[in-house]
């Protein structure tokens, strides 16, 4: 199952018209039709009843619709998260500080990081050297 097939399925289930769904997806209508047929083959049966001016979901199409919608939304969310991460829009940064070091030693560093990269999610951990080392080795 390809993501473009899922996108085409959702557009067709929304418009119930192959031409309008193809326009919405910016593809030629025969390409959309071919992708839907491949998806139907993979799913094991028709997802749409095709009647002249009355295209509508089959029972299997209605059953799969919420699952395919969820898959599509999860893919979009994953893509957005990856893009934010690659732009440092939303990147976690964990900083371990030994409790013996005065906080004023880190204030300028933290301020500089936050001003240059406002999307960084800074997590500070205050602990002793042994605990910090163990957490570093564990990838925390």
What is the topological layout?
Blueprint: H1 3-15, H2 18-25, H3 29-43, E1 48-49, E2 56-57, H4 59-86, E3 91-98, H5 104-116, E4 120-127, H6 129-137
Parallel strand pairs: 3-4
Antiparallel strand pairs: 1-2
Give the CATH H-level superfamily of the largest domain: Winged helix-like DNA-binding domain superfamily/Winged helix DNA-binding domain
Q: Quickly name the level 1 CATH class of the largest domain.
A: Mainly Alpha
Second rung of CATH, namely the architecture of the largest domain: Orthogonal Bundle
Q: How does the overall form come out from the CA principal axes?
A: elongated
Number of domains: 2
The DSSP helix count reads 6
Mean pLDDT: 87
Q: Give unreliable regions as ranges.
A: none
Order of helices and strands: HHHEEHEHEH
Strand content: 5-15%
Number of strands: 4
Q: What's the end-to-end separation, in Å?
A: 36 Å
- Helix/strand-derived class? alpha+beta
Query: How helical, in percent, are the residues?
Result: 55-70%
State the strand order across the main sheet: 1-2
Remind me, CATH topology of the largest domain? Answer: Arc Repressor Mutant, subunit A
